[in-house]
Amino acid sequence: MRNISKLPLNLILSAVLFQMFACEPLFAEDPVSKPGMTNPVKALADRVRGNINRQPLRFPNQHWVRGAYYAGLMAMYESTSDRAYLNDCLKWGKQVSWQIKEQGGGPYESGAYPLICGQIWYGCYRAENDETMIQPTLAFLEDPKVENPLSAPGKWYLENTGHRFVDGLFTAPPMLAMLYQMTGDEKYVQWMDACFWDVHGEIYDPDADLFYRDARSISRTTKNGKKVLWSRGNGWAFGGLTRILKVLPSEHPSYPKYKSLYLKMAESLAKRQQADGFWRPNLDDSEQHNVWESSGTGFFTYGIAWGINSGILDRDRFLPVAKNGWTALVSVVNEDGQVGWSQPAGGGPGKVTEADTSKFGTGIFLLAASEVFLLQQSPAAPK
User: Fold this and answer.
1) Which CATH number fits the domain 4-377, given the four candidates 1.10.10.10, 1.20.1250.20, 1.50.10.10, 3.40.50.300?
2) Cα–Cα distance between 132 and 332 in angstroms, integer?
3) pLDDT by residue (tens digit) across 91-108?
4) 0.90 surpassed by pTM
5) If we measure between CA atoms, which residue out of 238, 220, 347 comes closest to residue 285?
6) Domain boundaries, the chain
7) Each residue of 309-332: pLDDT tens digit?
8) How far apart are CA 340 and CA 112, in angstroms?
């Protein structure tokens, strides 16, 4: 037997959580919710948040990287009701006056990216019941002088290179679903549908039930002759689907199509999870970069755990997938709370090292934690 005292803290915690998840009664009567005990999922998320807060932010901005991190904070608030997470989001919103920043002029910019901030402002509005937090977003979408669904239909969500790209399926469509939830105005669903299904029509692979990053990846193959199906790229799509389904009413005519795609992706992703709980950078060729990768793994754990929590996914089939994904994610957090093994920003599968970390990868980790927290605490969800 190995001497546990010599193991890194994160691996000890990983082993503990694995055993906890393996014990089904945990979900019927959660021992960590008793007075004087700390929920290990929440404790780890707190450590991760603390690590980011110890890093000085040079300036406030409305960039998608920061938006993806704050999406994780908001999700943790919504799952745990810990206002420390909400307060971080409120502070950011006040710093930038709740504004959506018009897209920049770089080749990889898009009108879809800035709308991630609207998701955070919407969460703040819901928490505080203060419409002044979401009004700038509503105004941005009606402004004819900026690139938006009203001023540039069919174009606003394209990259400046002209490509339809999978990343934008996380940043923009869920925000439009949220605004429909708020207002009941059908135009927001129409804008969401037009964007999502246009992108889907060009870069979705129906044989794999997964997405290419953009059309340039379709013709590419690895040296093993496999497709280039980027893990985090599919994470943006699967995470976006999850967030749409969380807020779009199930009785809405658009809902079944999103649910059907979500279910297809969940099945495909479950089959591609590796024995160690991670998904590799290329979902079709695990040997192209046979290393851990936490951002795609975080997205898939988030989406699958949510599916179990909501009753959309069969618990017996998918609980082991979520459990193994979370155990893998725990192992990439060091004692300082830094989330490692997160592939740097890019446009496809790439090399990853333990030292690779990012704010967007950290936000994705917190998204996963938010749903695993609920999965751990709740009684067995209906199938």
Assistant:
1) 1.50.10.10
2) 39
3) 999 999 999 999 988 898
4) yes
5) 220
6) 4-377
7) 999 999 999 999 999 999 999 999
8) 27
